[in-house]
Amino acid sequence: MVAMIGIEDLMNGAETDSDRLVDTDTMIHFLKVIRLCTKEKETMKYDPKAMQNYNSTQEGFAEHYNATPPWDIGKPQAPFFTVSDQIKSPVLDVGCGTGSTSIFFASKGHDVTGIDFVEKAIQCAREKAAKQDLSVRFQIKDAMTLVNWDERFYSVIDSGLFHIYVGKEQKREQRRYVQGLAHVLKPGGRLFLLSFTDEAPEGGVSEQELSDIFADGWELESIQQVIGEINPTFLAEHPKAFPAGGPKMWFAIIRHIGN
Ligand SMILES: C[S@@+](CC[C@H](N)C(=O)[O-])C[C@H]1O[C@@H](n2cnc3c(N)ncnc32)[C@H](O)[C@@H]1O
């Protein structure tokens, strides 16, 4: 007859042995409960794919800013330091989050605008800039509205926004976003893009997809694979959310030739 195996034991991969055999009905019951528990666990875990649906994206990101967002490392991602002498003002940081990259370029003397559609992120960015006595225009703004904007920039920074809109269901948003980038970038201006590769568990783009997306009116000047840095507090709380060492990303410099 039945020697009870705890649900936790089963979920943790405990094997049954002859002393702990369960009858079929009990096993089916356990399996149903396990499925429920696993489902509950899945909805609770970090799941960036769940945000890859435009309608829920804003909500999903707003929620992230109530905790420690994985991308919020308090400084620019490494590739932006290496190209800092190639950045020309005016600079737009799209999806600027809490503003670390915008603030870094402002500290280098650039004229910087940072936009994000999460109010909390923008408030935090404004506070950080004020503490450092730096002037950055931080605005709550949806990147999907760039197509209607009158502002023009010579450099656009995209540190982790583009890859949110690369899934099959986001083709419309992706087109709109790329049209918006072309609209706000002066001819000859450049996009500095950091995006997950298609090998990242969150889903991203292949090199071919990236060059196809920027085929018309753009020139892909350089592309290299880099490793994204993740906030250590987030990593301690979610050790399995990203591959060991960090997610694979593309860092591309893309020149806007003209509309
Ligand atoms: C992965 S985070 C990167 C944040 C920041 N660039 C950084 O490197 O720390 C992506 C950011 O893009 C913002 N975002 C996503 N979709 C957006 C949209 N349509 N318009 C404006 N901001 C958006 C999110 O709120 C989030 O702050």
Automatic annotation (TrEMBL):
Keyword list, A-Z: Methyltransferase, Transferase
Name of the molecule in the record: Methyltransferase domain-containing protein
SUPFAM superfamilies in the cross-refs: S-adenosyl-L-methionine-dependent methyltransferases (SSF53335)
GO cellular component: cytoplasm
CDD domains in alphabetical order: AdoMet_MTases (cd02440)
Residues covered by the Methyltransferase domain: 91-189
InterPro entries membership: Methyltransf_25, SAM-dependent_MTases_sf
GO BP term (any one): methylation
Gene3D superfamilies for the chain: Vaccinia Virus protein VP39
A molecular function GO annotation: protein-lysine N-methyltransferase activity
Pfam families named among the record's database cross-references: Methyltransf_25
